[in-house]
UniProtKB/TrEMBL annotation:
Protein source organism: Hypholoma sublateritium (strain FD-334 SS-4)
InterPro entries: BTF3, NAC_A/B_dom_sf, Nas_poly-pep-assoc_cplx_dom
Subunit relationships: Part of the nascent polypeptide-associated complex (NAC).
Protein name per UniProt: Nascent polypeptide-associated complex subunit beta
Primary location: cytoplasm
Amino acid sequence: MDPAKLAKLQALSAANRIGGKGTVRRKIVRKTKASGAQDDKKLQGALKKLNVQPIPGVEEVNMFREDGNVLHFTAPKVHAAISANTFAIYGTGHVKELTELVPGILNQLGPDSLASLRKLAESYQAIQQGQQRQASGTADEEDDDDVPDLVENFDVDAETKVEAALD
């Protein structure tokens, strides 16, 4: 047998050996984990405990946040227990600005919702203007904080102390 081939086979068998010298050569078997399916099973178990039922046909969900942004879900899975006033919405959510979603939202709103959307837009504008004022105000205040106000004349006080010490 060729010594080069023999050395190559010994190197391969040593790499596959788990135990010490004389043990059975076994290959290491690695199992892959399917994390997505496992998380979904846990979620389904938690939803069963809440006695929720799936609601089919929901194309999108928008949740309005206090900072004026919208949490937008496209094609979410929605489950609800209406008697317990519990809703579970899961899927991929994106934080978007209200101005991006207004054209698509307008045709879905009724007259009552349109008035509340106007109020929301006004409050959003007020928040934006307040943040701009705060940003410009903090820049002015920071400049003032760096330099202290001159209250006394330190040169005159220092001269009187020196004269008093000499007398």
